[in-house]
């Protein structure tokens, strides 16, 4: 009888392993894959990029919001206007749209149409959001910004946005991305 339970346990574990190893495309896999490509620029930013002037003066809500956000992942693709690169740009934007549409993401907002636009998507429940994704595209450039956190709420995200607006962002940390977007190499 113990042998039957043992075999049953092995079968259940094998099935669970196969089910959990889903090969469905994910944004995380996309980021990892594309960060190795020369056509993309990828970097991670911590919440330390937000210069809270006098961080001793943060309210409890602001402290909570900063603790809820772990990091930001940013991925940028820039078309160089060659035919091959323009085709690749279209392929990559289609892949991203497909991942966002067919994944577990809920689209919150979309603006623009055609070649230019942006969308904001979230992963999780309203009071326990794991990820916000901003997908921007304009003039052969597209960017993905993933805001990753633990038990984030929409209020936390708004609070972070207000802190960024109020306190400013350390532009030196963003300079490599700005150079890439503007076509400069250094």
Automatic annotation (TrEMBL):
PROSITE patterns: PROKAR_LIPOPROTEIN. Pfam families: DUF4252. InterPro entries: DUF4252. This is DUF4252 domain-containing protein. It comes from Flavobacterium alkalisoli.
């Amino acid at each position: 009888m113990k042998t039957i339970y043992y075999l049953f346990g092995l079968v259940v574990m094998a099935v669970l392993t196969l089910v959990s190893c889903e090969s469905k495309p994910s944004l995380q896999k996309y980021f990892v894959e594309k960060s190795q490509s020369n056509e993309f620029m990828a970097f991670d930013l911590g919440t330390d990029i937000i210069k809270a002037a006098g961080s001793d003066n943060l309210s409890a809500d602001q402290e909570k919001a900063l603790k809820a956000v772990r990091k930001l992942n940013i991925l940028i693709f820039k078309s160089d206007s060659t035919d091959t690169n323009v085709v690749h740009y279209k392929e990559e934007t289609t892949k991203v749209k497909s991942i966002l549409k067919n994944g577990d993401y809920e689209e919150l907002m979309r603006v623009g149409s055609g070649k230019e636009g942006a969308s904001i998507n979230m992963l999780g429940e309203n009071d326990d959001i794991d990820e916000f994704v901003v997908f921007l595209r304009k003039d052969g450039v597209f960017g993905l910004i993933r805001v990753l956190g633990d038990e984030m709420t929409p209020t936390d995200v708004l609070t972070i946005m207000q802190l960024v607006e109020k306190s400013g962002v350390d532009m030196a940390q963003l300079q490599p991305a700005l150079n890439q977007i503007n076509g400069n190499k250094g």
